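Quick one:
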Amino acid sequence: MSSEQLWTVEEASARLRIHPESLRRWLREGKVAGYRLSRRAGWRVPEEEIQRLLQEGLADSKLAA
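Output:
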């Protein structure tokens, strides 16, 4: 991991205006890049990935499916 900004699933989903479980599912399926710290600590999503999702739009076919 680099020194880039990392967001929790709750923070990232609020910025993306989607449900946290949708983001967790996309992370598990590999549709969104992120880091799984541990089962208890959960996922972290890089700022770069949030920006990519915002630019591409969440209706992108690979996420909607």
